[in-house]
Amino acid sequence: MTHFVLFAFFGAIAQLVDGTLGMAFGVTSTTLLLIAGTSPATASASVHLAEIGTSLVSGFSHWKFRNVDWKIVFRLAVPGGVGAFIGATVLSNLSTEVAEPWMAGVLLTLGAYIFIRFTLRPPRTDKAQWSTPRRRHLGPLGLFAGFVDATGGGGWGPVATPALLGSGRVEPRKVIGSVDTSEFVVSVAASAGFLLALGDEQLNWVTVAGLLFGGALAAPLAAWLVSRVPTRLLGSLVGGIVILTNSRTLLTSYEVAGPTRAVVYVVLSAIWAAAVAYSVRGLRLDRARAENATPEHAGTGPA
């Protein structure tokens, strides 16, 4: 029972982050399982089985809050499922140690781009013309994100969310809602690949049930939060999460000394905190300008 409650708690925290920022359920949950001594393939399989339920509840919640663009979901989900199935099969038979630093470098680059763009030059939501990215762009993105997600125990959100946010063509809350909703298909495909390659003997079903239960409980709250968080602040938060998460992976992969790693984490955290504060200040200034402009505009016109 204690084991179930513990992983239900971590599932709730992971889903709250994932549902709000569009990423990190798999990264958080898989890390906990690996620390507990679970093999990479079994950890990823357990997380993806739990994500079938959490992504279903999360997708429904995002749909209720109108955070979903169904064209994006369909164009991402099918190639994402193919990539996830292939990735699950590969991970079940091969080590991913060599690929991890490369993947982390790609994600770190995407995170830095989003972080800088939304912190310093956020898109103007009052003038932006939102449109759905084309199938030829979403197909390869879904295939790659699905493969990374299955082989890394997480990655669908960290790959797909920054790429779509970086295009500047899709409203941020709909990016997160659509990515979370399409993750259901990715989770089903990855789970099928793992079960075919590994069987179910290596899985701890109490762990799966705990992650699923906690994540499902937190999904509606996360969907509500994403519709309330401003675009500028959301971009800073997403970028900071991606940078910190993948910096840790790179530093660990290259066996950087503990004290040096601590300094890097402190510096990155300080920059992240300053960027969030800068975004909050910018939001307040924008609101003040909007409030001041309304009376001016109301007072103009023929006498």
From TrEMBL:
InterPro entries: TM_pro_TauE-like, TSUP/Inactive_protease-like. The chain crosses the membrane at residues 72-90, 102-120, 141-159, 205-226, 233-250, 262-280. It is a multi-pass membrane protein. It comes from the Bacteria. It is found in: Cell membrane; Membrane. Coiled coil: none annotated. Keywords: Cell membrane, Membrane, Transmembrane, Transmembrane helix. The keyword Transmembrane helix applies. Belongs to the 4-toluene sulfonate uptake permease (TSUP) (TC 2.A.102) family. This is Probable membrane transporter protein. It comes from Streptomyces gossypii. The lineage of its organism: Bacteria, Bacillati, Actinomycetota, Actinomycetes, Kitasatosporales.
